[in-house]
Amino acid sequence: MAKIFYTGNKEEKLLSKIESSKERERIRTITTIRDNIETFSNKVSMKLIEQGLIETVSKSSVEKQIVRCLDTLCTAEDFDIDYMVAPFRTLISNPNIASLYLTAFIVEKLINHKDVVDIYGSDEDIYFSINKELAILGFEIRVLKGATM
Questions:
Q1: Is 40 exposed, middle or buried (0-12, 13-18, 19+ CB in 10 A)?
Q2: How far is CA 129 from CA 11, 23, 99, 126, 149, in A?
Q3: How confident is the model over 136-145, as pLDDT tens digits?
Q4: What pTM was computed for the model?
Q5: Contact, 108 vs 79, CB < 8 A?
Q6: How far apart are CA 21 and CA 30, in angstroms?
Q7: Cα separation of 51 and 36, whole Å?
Q8: How far apart are CA 38 and CA 69, in angstroms?
Q9: Helical H runs in the chain?
Q10: Who contacts 29 (Cβ-Cβ below 8 Å, separation ≥6)?
Q11: Across-strand partners of 55?
């Protein structure tokens, strides 16, 4: 939930607007992912494997795990999301919540999966790779919606 800081101060009104815009962006991102889970998980798993950030014996197994993670993200409460990303909150300033959540999942949980040989690269490398794919997906969706309108 967005925090409300109204006590009549200009600074507090500005803080409320910033917090509200962050919350809207969070909802928009999760909605975009919910509508395109299969596409996004395919692109992310492919990119992580191509860049050598994940070594696996089965790409489809990694893709299924990412689908499960994204499905969990789409149905999770705000507290659960914040709890999962807490260790990675300082990774970058103003992170995308979905990219950060998926980074946390890969670094903390996917590394222990039976089909994953190893995970290479830094947390930042993984985050930026995921975030780039999310940005591309969001752009493609906006273009498609604009073309149909």
A1: buried
A2: 35, 23, 9, 5, 31
A3: 877 665 555 5
A4: 0.80
A5: no
A6: 14
A7: 22
A8: 12
A9: 10-35, 37-50, 59-75, 78-85, 97-108, 123-148
A10: 96, 97, 98, 134, 138
A11: 118
